[in-house]
Amino acid sequence: MKFNKSMLSNILFFGFLIFLFTPYGLSTRAKLTQGVTYVKTLLMPPKTEAVNERVEFNTDFSLKGITNATNVNLNDLKGEVVFINYWATWCPPCRAEMPSLQSLYDDYKDKVAFVFITSDDKDKVDNFYTKYDYELPTYNILSNPPKEIDTQSLPATFVIDKNGKVALSEFGPANWNSNMVRGLLDNLISE
Question: pTM for the complete prediction?
Answer without folding.
Answer: 0.77
